[in-house]
Amino acid sequence: MPRHQSFWSATASLAECPPLAENVHVDVCIIGAGIAGLSTAYHLVQAGKSVAVLDHGPLVSGMTRMTTGHLTNMLDDRYFELEKLHGADAMRVAADSHSAAIERIDEIVRKEGIDCDFARLDGYLFLAEGDKRATLERELDAAHRAGLSEVQMLPRAPYENWDTGPCLRFPRQAQFHPLKYLDGLAAAIRRSGGRIFCHSHADQVEGGVPGLVHVGSHVVTGDALVVATNVPINNRVTLLTKQAPYMTYVVGARVPRGSVPAVLAWDTGDPYHYIRIQPHGEYDLLIVGGEDHKSGQAHDSPQRYRKLEAWARSRFPMMQEVEFNWGGQIMEPIDYLAFIGQNPFDHENIYVATGDSGMGLTHGTIAGMLLCDLILGRPNPWAKLYSPARVPVKAAGEFAREDLNMAAQYADWLTPGDVKSADEIAPDSGAIVRRGLDKLAVYRDENGVLHERLAACPHLGCIVQWNPGEKTWDCPCHGSRFDAKGHVMNGPANTDLASVRRTPDKRAA
Questions:
Q1: How far is CA 20 from each of CA 137, 224, 491, rounded to the nearest angstrom?
Q2: How far apart are alpha carbons 290 and 288 in whole angstroms?
Q3: Please, where are the H alpha helices in 316-395?
Q4: Which of 82, 104, 110 is nearest to 95 (CA)?
Q5: How far apart are CA 36 and CA 363, in angstroms?
Q6: In this predicted structure, what is the pLDDT of residue 234?
Q7: Which residues pair with 100 in a beta bridge?
Q8: Which of 97, 144, 150, 181 is the most exposed place for a label (fewest CB within 10 A)?
């Protein structure tokens, strides 16, 4: 059986960081120790600012560890689509910023001496089954207008046993081991005087001068606050109407060393597949991802892994056993670009970074550079494009579709449960059970013990759904995720699923 764990988690030993144990004042307090939070902290301490980073769990415990380590300026939503929504100038800014993010990671790796398997390599965009060459031709023209003049059309990607057909080559992309990189980045932050506190849950975020972050009985005050929690825990509605949560899945299988070329690759499908190679002992690990779906709106996640494996085996006959599988959540903005900057309708010293759009590693690095400039009052040519306050007028159709989809999920309050009784739930599995007016999220652990929580997401009351492949409760409205026992893993919810209200036993009175 494959290990249900990301390869990065299995092969990195991250430094421990202490919990917050006192009140602290800093220039900037950052919530979230993933790539966006740590990149922002790194750039700020390099600029001489005092910084404190808080994380609910251990270092890099969120979605950054669920990525596949691609670093690319090949946008997965296509440059020609971006141009239609934002215009040619904005498209060039997007290309420039993602290219700059790869360069900055390269610079940091060399400057800080971080051993993270960083490598420059080419990326290839090829056609999914049924797609037409015209898609590649449109993207090639748009990429050239975006300033990526080195992108070229080739007859096939460089796979010996699989003819992909025509493809676009994007030179000088990159890959790395994201957890080793961020462990090195955290060490560099500490060397420059930054402080990182793990297992320190931000209970409440308050704007003002200074801003306040309440962590249990302690408070961190900062002249500026940055919420880099993948989905903001301090923005209940505004940004969540402009992005939607999707789950994506990954398998990692052994292949003989050198049997698959070390390149990045993606197809044009929707959802699309993505491929890379990672050295792994005497073998290489072939990493293949895809099979995306709206969070909380599919009940076949184990089948998603089987489909990915079958897709990969049909193209890579040298593929051996699958060693790892894992899933993660991405936030898809309706206009394809992240939201990085001042939090809308909040105090001017509160900043957010969200909307990774499947490009979380470069968007997170862009956030580090851009938020540093905004906090320091320096001009940045990317600020307008990534502004969280932007109104995506030309994406109105997608906006309406996503909001209608979200609203439809509230009908789950009126439906029966997944099962009639908790007796039907198998060990190490979960299901929704109706009990009177309440719906319960019920998990039976491997020892047969039941764990019951109210199924209403504490964010805005949507009914969570069981994800059998990940053993999580996922909110189909805004992407909050909870572990099997109801503990919050991912915002916008900032608290656990509520405990079940027990009716007093009158006989004991």
A1: 53, 18, 21
A2: 7
A3: 360-376, 383-386
A4: 82
A5: 8
A6: 76
A7: none
A8: 150
Question: Among 438, 443, 444, which residue's Cα sits nearest to residue 473?
Answer: 443
Helix (H, G, I), strand (E, B) or coil at 24: strand
Residue 337 and residue 292: Cα distance in Å, rounded? Answer: 18
CA 489 to chain centre: 12
- Give me the sheet containing 488-490, strands edge to edge: 465-467, 472-474, 481-483, 488-490
Nearest to 480 by CA among 471, 466, 469, 492: 492
Give the three-state DSSP class for 130.
Answer: coil
Which pLDDT does position 414 carry in this prediction? 55
Which residues are paired to 284 by β-bridges?
Answer: 255, 279
Q: What is the pLDDT of residue 399?
A: 45
Q: Is the peptide bond before 18 cis (omega within 30 degrees of 0)?
A: no
| CA distance linking residue 422 with residue 500, whole number of Å | 14
**Residues across the chain:** 509
Say which residue the tokens 């309706």 belong to.
Answer: 334
Report helix, strand or coil for 267. Answer: strand
Distances 254 to 108, 265, 358, 469 between C-alpha atoms, Å: 30, 18, 25, 21
Whether the Cβ atoms of residue 440 and residue 433 lie closer than 8 Å to each other: yes
Longest distance between any two alpha carbons in the chain, whole Å: 80
Q: Which residues contact 509 (CB under 8 A, 6 or more apart)?
A: none
- CATH class of the region 415-501: mainly beta
pLDDT < 50 stretches in the chain = 399-400, 503-509
User: What are the residues facing 303 on neighbouring strands?
Assistant: none
* Interatomic CA distance for residues 25 and 277, integer angstroms: 44
**CA distance to 64, 65, 226, 234, 478, per residue, from 345 (Å):** 28, 31, 15, 11, 19
- 430 exposure class (CB count in 10 Å sphere: 0-12, 13-18, 19+): buried
